[in-house]
Amino acid sequence: MGRTVIVIPARYESSRFPGKPLALLDGTSLIQRTWQQCVAALGPDDVYVATDDDRIESHCRGFGAQVVLTPTTCPTGTDRVYAASEQIDAEAFVNVQGDEPLVDPADIHTVIAASQAHPGEVVNAMCPIEDEATFRDPNVPKVVSAPDGRLLYMSRAAVPTGKDLGFRGAWRQVCVYAFPTSALERYANHGGKTPVEQIEDIEILRFLELGIPVRMVAVSSASLAVDVPGDIARVEAELRRRARR
Protein backbone atom coordinates (compact mmCIF):
# COMPACT_ATOMS: atom_id res chain seq x y z
CA MET A 1 0.00 0.00 0.00
CA GLY A 2 1.23 3.50 -0.82
CA ARG A 3 1.63 6.52 1.37
CA THR A 4 -0.83 7.10 4.21
CA VAL A 5 -1.22 10.61 5.59
CA ILE A 6 -3.21 12.20 8.40
CA VAL A 7 -5.39 15.19 7.63
CA ILE A 8 -6.82 17.21 10.53
CA PRO A 9 -9.85 19.20 9.35
CA ALA A 10 -10.28 22.45 11.27
CA ARG A 11 -12.86 25.18 10.80
CA TYR A 12 -13.41 28.31 12.82
CA GLU A 13 -17.19 28.59 12.45
CA SER A 14 -18.53 25.82 14.67
CA SER A 15 -22.18 26.21 15.68
CA ARG A 16 -21.61 24.71 19.12
CA PHE A 17 -18.17 26.24 19.77
CA PRO A 18 -17.03 29.08 17.46
CA GLY A 19 -13.23 29.32 17.25
CA LYS A 20 -12.81 25.87 18.79
CA PRO A 21 -9.48 24.92 17.11
CA LEU A 22 -7.79 27.94 18.72
CA ALA A 23 -9.24 27.37 22.19
CA LEU A 24 -6.50 26.93 24.79
CA LEU A 25 -5.98 23.82 26.89
CA ASP A 26 -3.54 24.75 29.65
CA GLY A 27 -1.95 27.32 27.37
CA THR A 28 -1.72 25.23 24.17
CA SER A 29 -4.35 25.37 21.45
CA LEU A 30 -6.69 22.48 20.81
CA ILE A 31 -5.48 22.12 17.22
CA GLN A 32 -1.81 22.07 18.26
CA ARG A 33 -2.42 19.38 20.87
CA THR A 34 -4.24 17.25 18.31
CA TRP A 35 -1.46 17.82 15.76
CA GLN A 36 1.18 16.80 18.32
CA GLN A 37 -0.59 13.48 18.92
CA CYS A 38 -0.80 12.85 15.17
CA VAL A 39 2.88 13.71 14.69
CA ALA A 40 3.72 11.20 17.42
CA ALA A 41 2.01 8.59 15.25
CA LEU A 42 3.36 9.36 11.76
CA GLY A 43 5.87 12.19 12.01
CA PRO A 44 5.45 15.81 10.81
CA ASP A 45 5.95 15.09 7.10
CA ASP A 46 2.77 12.99 6.90
CA VAL A 47 0.43 15.22 8.95
CA TYR A 48 -1.55 18.12 7.48
CA VAL A 49 -4.09 20.58 8.83
CA ALA A 50 -6.91 21.35 6.38
CA THR A 51 -8.70 24.65 6.98
CA ASP A 52 -10.48 27.52 5.27
CA ASP A 53 -9.60 30.11 7.90
CA ASP A 54 -6.65 32.52 7.82
CA ARG A 55 -6.42 32.61 11.63
CA ILE A 56 -6.12 28.85 11.89
CA GLU A 57 -3.67 28.72 8.98
CA SER A 58 -1.39 31.35 10.53
CA HIS A 59 -1.52 29.73 13.96
CA CYS A 60 -0.72 26.25 12.61
CA ARG A 61 2.16 27.41 10.45
CA GLY A 62 3.50 29.16 13.53
CA PHE A 63 4.04 25.87 15.37
CA GLY A 64 5.38 24.10 12.27
CA ALA A 65 2.37 22.31 10.82
CA GLN A 66 1.80 21.72 7.13
CA VAL A 67 -1.43 23.47 6.13
CA VAL A 68 -3.71 22.87 3.13
CA LEU A 69 -6.27 25.55 2.33
CA THR A 70 -9.72 24.21 1.45
CA PRO A 71 -13.02 25.82 0.36
CA THR A 72 -15.35 27.45 2.86
CA THR A 73 -18.20 25.40 1.39
CA CYS A 74 -17.10 22.00 2.77
CA PRO A 75 -20.14 20.75 4.73
CA THR A 76 -18.19 18.29 6.92
CA GLY A 77 -14.68 17.45 8.01
CA THR A 78 -14.65 14.47 5.65
CA ASP A 79 -15.52 16.74 2.73
CA ARG A 80 -12.60 18.93 3.84
CA VAL A 81 -10.29 15.90 3.88
CA TYR A 82 -11.35 15.15 0.31
CA ALA A 83 -10.57 18.73 -0.72
CA ALA A 84 -7.15 18.36 0.88
CA SER A 85 -6.62 14.98 -0.78
CA GLU A 86 -6.69 16.64 -4.18
CA GLN A 87 -3.54 18.54 -3.16
CA ILE A 88 -1.66 15.69 -1.42
CA ASP A 89 0.02 12.71 -3.07
CA ALA A 90 -1.14 9.70 -1.03
CA GLU A 91 -3.06 6.44 -1.37
CA ALA A 92 -4.98 6.56 1.91
CA PHE A 93 -6.12 9.39 4.14
CA VAL A 94 -6.68 9.30 7.88
CA ASN A 95 -9.04 11.92 9.26
CA VAL A 96 -8.32 12.84 12.87
CA GLN A 97 -10.85 15.43 13.95
CA GLY A 98 -9.23 18.58 15.30
CA ASP A 99 -11.13 18.31 18.58
CA GLU A 100 -9.38 15.09 19.70
CA PRO A 101 -6.42 16.50 21.74
CA LEU A 102 -5.93 13.29 23.72
CA VAL A 103 -6.10 10.83 20.83
CA ASP A 104 -3.64 8.01 21.45
CA PRO A 105 -1.03 7.60 18.67
CA ALA A 106 -1.37 3.84 19.13
CA ASP A 107 -5.07 4.12 18.29
CA ILE A 108 -4.21 5.94 15.07
CA HIS A 109 -1.90 3.04 14.19
CA THR A 110 -4.75 0.59 14.94
CA VAL A 111 -6.99 2.36 12.43
CA ILE A 112 -4.22 2.49 9.82
CA ALA A 113 -3.45 -1.22 10.30
CA ALA A 114 -7.14 -2.10 9.84
CA SER A 115 -7.24 0.04 6.71
CA GLN A 116 -4.19 -1.72 5.30
CA ALA A 117 -5.65 -5.14 6.15
CA HIS A 118 -8.91 -4.24 4.41
CA PRO A 119 -7.96 -2.06 1.43
CA GLY A 120 -10.86 -0.28 -0.17
CA GLU A 121 -12.86 -0.11 3.06
CA VAL A 122 -13.70 2.85 5.26
CA VAL A 123 -12.49 2.33 8.83
CA ASN A 124 -13.66 4.17 11.95
CA ALA A 125 -12.62 3.83 15.59
CA MET A 126 -14.80 3.17 18.61
CA CYS A 127 -14.39 2.50 22.33
CA PRO A 128 -16.65 1.26 25.13
CA ILE A 129 -19.00 3.62 26.94
CA GLU A 130 -18.31 3.24 30.63
CA ASP A 131 -21.07 5.31 32.26
CA GLU A 132 -24.72 6.08 31.70
CA ALA A 133 -24.20 9.86 31.50
CA THR A 134 -22.08 9.39 28.36
CA PHE A 135 -24.68 6.99 26.97
CA ARG A 136 -27.36 9.68 27.33
CA ASP A 137 -25.22 12.57 26.05
CA PRO A 138 -26.42 13.72 22.59
CA ASN A 139 -22.98 15.17 21.87
CA VAL A 140 -21.59 11.60 21.84
CA PRO A 141 -22.34 9.47 18.74
CA LYS A 142 -23.18 5.91 19.76
CA VAL A 143 -22.11 2.99 17.58
CA VAL A 144 -24.17 -0.08 16.70
CA SER A 145 -22.07 -2.64 14.84
CA ALA A 146 -22.28 -6.29 13.79
CA PRO A 147 -20.06 -8.91 15.43
CA ASP A 148 -17.69 -8.76 12.43
CA GLY A 149 -17.22 -5.00 12.89
CA ARG A 150 -19.56 -3.76 10.16
CA LEU A 151 -21.21 -0.51 11.16
CA LEU A 152 -24.99 -0.95 11.25
CA TYR A 153 -25.92 2.51 12.51
CA MET A 154 -24.61 5.44 14.51
CA SER A 155 -26.80 7.82 16.48
CA ARG A 156 -26.82 10.66 18.98
CA ALA A 157 -29.67 8.80 20.67
CA ALA A 158 -29.00 6.32 23.49
CA VAL A 159 -28.62 3.09 21.49
CA PRO A 160 -28.72 0.15 21.61
CA THR A 161 -31.33 -0.19 24.31
CA GLY A 162 -34.32 -2.29 25.34
CA LYS A 163 -38.01 -1.73 25.99
CA ASP A 164 -37.13 -0.06 29.28
CA LEU A 165 -34.64 2.23 27.48
CA GLY A 166 -31.96 1.12 29.96
CA PHE A 167 -28.19 1.27 29.67
CA ARG A 168 -26.76 -2.22 29.12
CA GLY A 169 -23.41 -1.25 27.70
CA ALA A 170 -22.60 0.48 24.43
CA TRP A 171 -19.84 1.91 22.26
CA ARG A 172 -19.02 5.46 21.26
CA GLN A 173 -17.34 6.80 18.19
CA VAL A 174 -13.74 7.99 18.34
CA CYS A 175 -13.23 10.49 15.53
CA VAL A 176 -10.37 8.77 13.74
CA TYR A 177 -11.23 7.51 10.26
CA ALA A 178 -9.30 5.98 7.36
CA PHE A 179 -10.53 6.39 3.80
CA PRO A 180 -9.36 5.02 0.47
CA THR A 181 -9.40 7.73 -2.18
CA SER A 182 -12.23 6.05 -4.12
CA ALA A 183 -14.60 6.17 -1.12
CA LEU A 184 -13.65 9.76 -0.35
CA GLU A 185 -14.40 10.77 -3.92
CA ARG A 186 -17.85 9.14 -3.91
CA TYR A 187 -18.60 10.76 -0.55
CA ALA A 188 -17.62 14.28 -1.57
CA ASN A 189 -19.15 14.10 -5.05
CA HIS A 190 -22.58 13.17 -3.70
CA GLY A 191 -23.42 16.86 -3.59
CA GLY A 192 -24.19 17.51 0.06
CA LYS A 193 -25.39 15.70 3.14
CA THR A 194 -27.62 12.64 2.85
CA PRO A 195 -31.01 12.63 4.66
CA VAL A 196 -30.12 10.67 7.81
CA GLU A 197 -26.68 12.29 8.01
CA GLN A 198 -28.51 15.64 8.01
CA ILE A 199 -30.83 14.60 10.84
CA GLU A 200 -28.19 13.03 13.09
CA ASP A 201 -25.37 15.44 12.13
CA ILE A 202 -22.98 12.47 11.99
CA GLU A 203 -20.91 12.58 8.82
CA ILE A 204 -19.95 8.86 8.75
CA LEU A 205 -23.61 8.03 8.04
CA ARG A 206 -23.27 9.35 4.48
CA PHE A 207 -21.12 6.34 3.63
CA LEU A 208 -23.85 3.97 4.84
CA GLU A 209 -26.55 5.86 2.96
CA LEU A 210 -24.44 5.64 -0.21
CA GLY A 211 -24.04 1.88 0.26
CA ILE A 212 -20.36 2.11 1.24
CA PRO A 213 -19.55 -0.29 4.12
CA VAL A 214 -17.80 1.03 7.21
CA ARG A 215 -15.64 -1.18 9.42
CA MET A 216 -15.44 -0.28 13.12
CA VAL A 217 -12.30 -1.12 15.11
CA ALA A 218 -11.94 -1.01 18.88
CA VAL A 219 -9.39 1.35 20.38
CA SER A 220 -8.53 2.51 23.89
CA SER A 221 -10.71 4.87 25.89
CA ALA A 222 -7.90 7.44 26.12
CA SER A 223 -9.46 10.07 23.88
CA LEU A 224 -11.72 12.83 25.17
CA ALA A 225 -13.21 15.05 22.48
CA VAL A 226 -13.94 18.76 22.93
CA ASP A 227 -17.46 19.23 21.57
CA VAL A 228 -18.65 22.27 23.55
CA PRO A 229 -16.92 24.91 25.73
CA GLY A 230 -17.80 23.00 28.88
CA ASP A 231 -15.53 20.14 27.78
CA ILE A 232 -12.38 22.26 28.13
CA ALA A 233 -12.17 21.94 31.91
CA ARG A 234 -12.70 18.19 31.74
CA VAL A 235 -9.88 17.72 29.21
CA GLU A 236 -7.56 20.06 31.12
CA ALA A 237 -8.14 17.99 34.26
CA GLU A 238 -7.20 14.84 32.35
CA LEU A 239 -4.06 16.51 30.95
CA ARG A 240 -2.96 17.44 34.47
CA ARG A 241 -3.72 13.96 35.75
CA ARG A 242 -1.52 12.45 33.05
CA ALA A 243 1.25 14.96 33.75
CA ARG A 244 1.39 13.75 37.37
CA ARG A 245 1.98 10.13 36.40
Could you explain the architecture of this structure?
The chain has 245 residues and is an alpha/beta fold. It has one domain (4-126, 173-243): Spore Coat Polysaccharide Biosynthesis Protein SpsA, Chain A. The chain contains 9 helices and 11 strands. The strands form 2 sheets. Strands 1, 4, 5, 6, 7, 8, 9, 10 and 11 form a 9-stranded mixed beta sheet that branches. The longest helix has 13 residues, at 30-42. The relative contact order is 0.18. The model has no long low-confidence stretch (mean pLDDT 94).
CATH evolutionary superfamily = Spore Coat Polysaccharide Biosynthesis Protein SpsA, Chain A
The major β-sheet equals: 9 strands, mixed
Strand percentage: 15-25%
| Subunit organisation of the chains | single chain
Principal-axes geometry comes out as: globular
CATH architecture: Alpha-Beta Complex
CATH class descriptor: Alpha Beta
Q: How many structural domains in the coordinates?
A: 1
Radius of gyration: 17 Å
Which ranges are low-confidence, i.e. pLDDT below 50, for 5 or more consecutive residues?
none
Mean pLDDT: 94
Sequence of secondary-structure elements: EEEHEHEHEHEHEEEHHHEH
Annotated CATH topology: Spore Coat Polysaccharide Biosynthesis Protein SpsA, Chain A
Task: Quote the distance from N terminus to C terminus.
Answer: 38 Å
Number of strand elements: 11
The SS-based structural class is: alpha/beta
Tally of separate helices: 9
Q: Give helix % range.
A: 25-40%
